[in-house]
Amino acid sequence: TSVVDWAKSDAYHNSFLIHKDDDLDFAVKNATAQGLPDIAVSPAQGKWLSLMAQSIGAKRILEVGTLGGYSSIWMGKTLPEDGELITLEINGTHAKVARENFAKAGLAAKCKVVVGPAYESMTGLQPDVPFDLVFIDADKRSYPQYVAEAKRLVRKGGVIIVDNVVRYGLVNDLSVDDIDIVGIREMLAYIKEDKELDATTIATVGERAFDGFLYAIRK
Ligand code: SAM
């Protein structure tokens, strides 16, 4: 069998389903120009996050792991006038680039970056109105703590999406003891015991190769 070029597969589907967006293009170029790593979600995944946000009518979104704000912009564009996205980032340069990208996208008022270790930022949040959607996409070793805090911060019926939970099948390969992979396993064990979370993993393939999202709702 021939080796499938999954980036080409994404590009084919995107050519029908994803329209050109100057703000997202600028965000990618600006992030690259300022030396940020190329680890944002793919366009198809960004669109999927945007559709998820729209399908639950999300007004308040929390993101863990900003990078240059690419996924934030996808979700931020779906927010109503009085909507808000708070995104947590430990790296000051990443946060600066994200703020520039939000300004270019006209999202500076709606999308706010909080700089610092995400777990501390999360535990410091005491929102009057809980979040509708939490997207977790930062250091994998902290995923159990992030999911626990996300559950505290999301409304009943709200959604938690966690990126990079499959990692080429390394997560189910118990001979792999990398701390980030262990973090994902511990997150799964946490969710298994949690009576308020209902979740599934959807493995994905595309330009970001073999990985997957965990999709959870707070019952
Ligand atoms: N969600 C972004 C997107 O798709 O455009 C990509 C986020 S990138 C995969 C992960 C980000 O998490 C990096 O910018 C990294 O600096 C940040 N990060 C890593 N550890 C962190 C921590 N403990 N607290 C907050 N942010 C962290």
Descriptive account of the structure:
The protein has 219 residues and is an alpha/beta fold. It has one domain: Rossmann fold, CATH 3.40.50. Helix content is 41%, strand content 22%. The chain contains 8 helices and 7 strands, in the order αααβαβαβαβαβαββ. A 7-stranded mixed sheet has the order 3-2-1-4-5-7-6, with helices on both faces. Strand 6 and strand 7 form a beta hairpin. Helix 6 runs parallel beside helix 7. The N and C termini lie far apart (44 Å). The model has no long low-confidence stretch (mean pLDDT 97). The site of S-adenosylmethionine has 19 residues, from helix 4 and strand 2.
Topology:
Elements lengths: L5 H12 L4 H12 L9 H13 L4 E5 L5 H7 L7 E6 L2 H13 L6 E5 L2 H7 L6 E6 L6 H11 E10 L15 H15 L3 E8 L6 E8 L1
Parallel strand pairs: 1-2, 1-4, 2-3, 4-5
Antiparallel strand pairs: 5-7, 6-7
Helix pairs in contact: 2-5, 3-4, 6-7, 7-8
